[in-house]
Amino acid sequence: MTTSDRPATEEQEFRRPPGPPPGPPPVSNVWVYNGKAYDLSQWISKHPGGEFFIGRTKNRDITSIIGSYHKDPERIGRMIERYALDRQAIPEDIHPKANAPDFLFKEGFDSWRDTPKYRFDDKNDLLHQIKARLKEPELAVRLQRMDTLFNIVVAVLAVLYFAVQGLRLADPNWMPLPVFVIAMVVLRSSLAGFGHYAIHRAQKTQLSKVFVNAFDLNYVALAFVTADGHALLHHPHTQSEVDIKKNVFTMMMQVPRLYRIPVHTMHKFGHTVTGMLIRLLDVCRLVRQVGVRDMYGTRRGAMGHFVGSFGVRFLLIAELVAFTLAGDFWAWALQFVVTMWVSTFLVVASHDFEVDTEELHSDTEDWGVNQLEQAYDLTVVGNRWVDCFLSAGLSSHRVHHVLPYQRSGFANIATEDVVREEAEKFGVEWLPAKSFFTDRFPKQIRTYLLSPSREAEENKWGFVREHLSPSALKTCATYTAQGFTGIGTV
Known about the structure:
Elements lengths: L7 H4 L19 E3 L2 E3 L12 H5 L7 H7 L3 H7 L4 E5 L22 H4 L11 H9 L2 H34 L6 H24 L5 H6 L11 H12 L10 H4 L8 H34 L1 H5 L2 H27 L3 H19 L19 H8 L3 E2 L4 H7 L6 H6 L6 H17 L8 E2 H14 L4 H6 L3 H6 L1 H15 L6
Parallel strand pairs: 4-5
Antiparallel strand pairs: 1-2, 2-3
Helix pairs in contact: 3-4, 6-19, 7-8, 7-19, 8-15, 12-14, 12-23, 14-15
Pfam family, one: Cyt-b5
Keywords: Membrane, Transmembrane, Transmembrane helix
Organism: Nocardia goodfellowii
């Protein structure tokens, strides 16, 4: 729950002092947990969940990350005591923008002040009650079976993914255009759903690091970068100012509404062709500057992520080249446009990202209850097992937010009864899943496609000026170019 006994440094006014405060000087390798400072640099390569999660969270408060992503956070707390710096955390220990790009946060954001403070040591809170029931042997065995079944389905989908494209390239008559487009939208969304769960899994083996990049198959993001913003910033701090996922998908709102679909489509096409490769090269440069050891522990620890990320990006480009050379570019283009837009709306369909953070504030001090109140489940065709893939893994979304470490959507479905029953004891109403097509999609159309541009709203411009002003046209050109240079919505 939210701590009421924070260290003295947190009870001071939330601003960074002009000079170093009294006491031990801060060091660059600092992680903050429960208000105390730690140096986990020696733990990066030892972390069972993978080096990335420790290296990427340097100079952040990892209290909620440890509490939410581990079955026994108390044991983790005892384990890291050997790395304690024997002092309370101070503002200089926390990077003001969480070591993430500044443009992802609102003006004035400061991670020391704006990161929600929760504690996870109350044995009677919702999360502890749920985890206690998950230890029941019969349920634990069932969850393992669900993970295995999920992986088998993913393997079948991967074969179908290449088979559908192969048939279309070999002879379009074997794979008519409408069938091809629908199949690619379904398969890309489904495999991206697997990538979504791969991001949450332990990333210790090289294969697991490669699989993370399956999320890129829906053209929406760069999984290598998204793993941080999604797993480490969005999930532990849902709908707070730290939740950069809320800000990423509203960037298209700077484009005038009539131009928004074509301009954003070209922006994402640019991402696919060159933008994300440029972004990956930027990540490579960053790793060289910071040092492989500080981010991955060893060069080998970094290999799977880089091989997988570059591999998937080259695969997406190779598909475009293959269809172009085969004289079937427009088939590729149609599946690209439909997949990209459907997937974009699916990604933001299970939260009220269009609502201001202040309006979504929850008074609860229980992290698990807060997660249930800030998320809802999604339905596409009405069958949870099918929707698990069609919704990119979001059919049992509330369970996923309370138990983000679970390895598959099938495991979340199998856990839903437990979470619902325990939630009822805490007075949390279990609302029915929302339909993507009849509920979320119409609302998203109004918000993301039909609302005036940000500049028009700020200046109270009319429809004509919104679309014909020189600054609006410049915005469109800049936004399009940014896609090809890797800047923008990721």
